[in-house]
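Human: Not sure, check this?
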Amino acid sequence: MSFWGNLIGYQLVWFAAVIGAARGAAWPGLISGLLFISWQTVTAKRPEVELRLLAIALLLGIVIDGVMAQRGWARYATSSPAFPEHGAPWWILALWMSFATTLNRSLAYLRDRPWLALALGAIGAPLAYLGAQRGWHAVVFAAPAWRGIGWIAASWALALPLLAWLARRLGAASRPSIASISPDQP
């Protein structure tokens, strides 16, 4: 159920955030994101790994979507930025953190496949943003749209393999190795 709960839960957060933003409200994305993140963290085998990954995803979202907003390459339907004026809106940051929970569950297979993570980031992320634009106008790319779409493709092509690698690395670091167990321990 962890795989399916995570996969379906993330999709529900995405729809709540995008549709809410399209209607001028950031709170559906924030509340659904916080509930989902809480559920995924509480049920995680290693909550400390999950929290570190969430923090890194939050920072990536602040930078990647913040740059896009500050450069004017895209406009968000709810322009309540989490940080400086014209920064990434709260609902986008909730999506970034919600997405991070998939890397130890429904997208765990990406942890050992960096090239697949790169391709999925480069193709899947722009498609998700375009879906948010065309379906609901939650995000609108400024003309010429290739700048914003290119930025998202390039950024996610780097961010997703990084997050997948960190999910693997942080998870491995939190487990004791055989060499670290002393003979005096049971």
